[in-house]
């Protein structure tokens, strides 16, 4: 054999052997589950619903670490700066890994730098409105928004920052209906919800959870619709967006998944994939996610989950392009 080819073959053989050995000992110490938002939000709730069962299935403690900032991209970059050894599992979504690189010029990573190991859950998106907005449903809202815009008073919609999924939804709503609307960005869900409750912003297309339901029951906000294709049992009291006359195709949700660096050795990825997949069958995990209006993900094979991530990346990039999203 050519000496150069012999060295390459030896190197590849060594890498394969190292991967196999690392998988046999992985995990040999606690694993970090990195959440790209502060404690107390929905992302944090999801992580703390899953981590104890995931710890049991991995044979090591899985410790939740919250690191917010820059639409989740600070935490995502931390994963890329760490070794590709599976010791950090990133709890991410299209918000941080697909949209942040498109919206924030300082973000240098690409969606393809990460590998989705397994889906966890899908969040239902609610069409929330301030309590005193003089509308009862989505169609009345559009009539009201059109009249307000014609009088130079465009309605306002909240988001958790420029380029976030919720910003894209608001811009897409404005473009789809041809009604001018004003974007009001916030640094997170909490301040956006606070201003919605205080009447400083008109609407917020946001994940629906127990807190939103309680506020609706107390008359502190309105749920005009769920952006679902049909009424689901968990939110059967609220109309699906498809029940409206004007926005039948405006159906959206956002998923959460667990990621690692793309160059993490395959045997380690397989260990993580099995542990997460087994966790999704646990009744406590499923009950906790469902109690927060999350739709528990159907476990996918590594091949299928890779395709789902690629398809989701293409979908969100297309939406960003349709509204001419520019990095800032």
From TrEMBL:
UniProt source species: Limnohabitans lacus
InterPro entries referenced in this protein's UniProt entry, alphabetically: BUG (IPR005064), Bug_dom1 (IPR042100)
PANTHER family in UniProt: BLR1237 PROTEIN, TRICARBOXYLATE-BINDING PROTEIN
Keywords: Signal
Domain of life per record: Bacteria
SUPFAM superfamilies given in the database record: Periplasmic binding protein-like II
Leader sequence residues: 1-23
Family in the record: Belongs to the UPF0065 (bug) family.
Protein name per Swiss-Prot or TrEMBL: Tripartite tricarboxylate transporter substrate binding protein
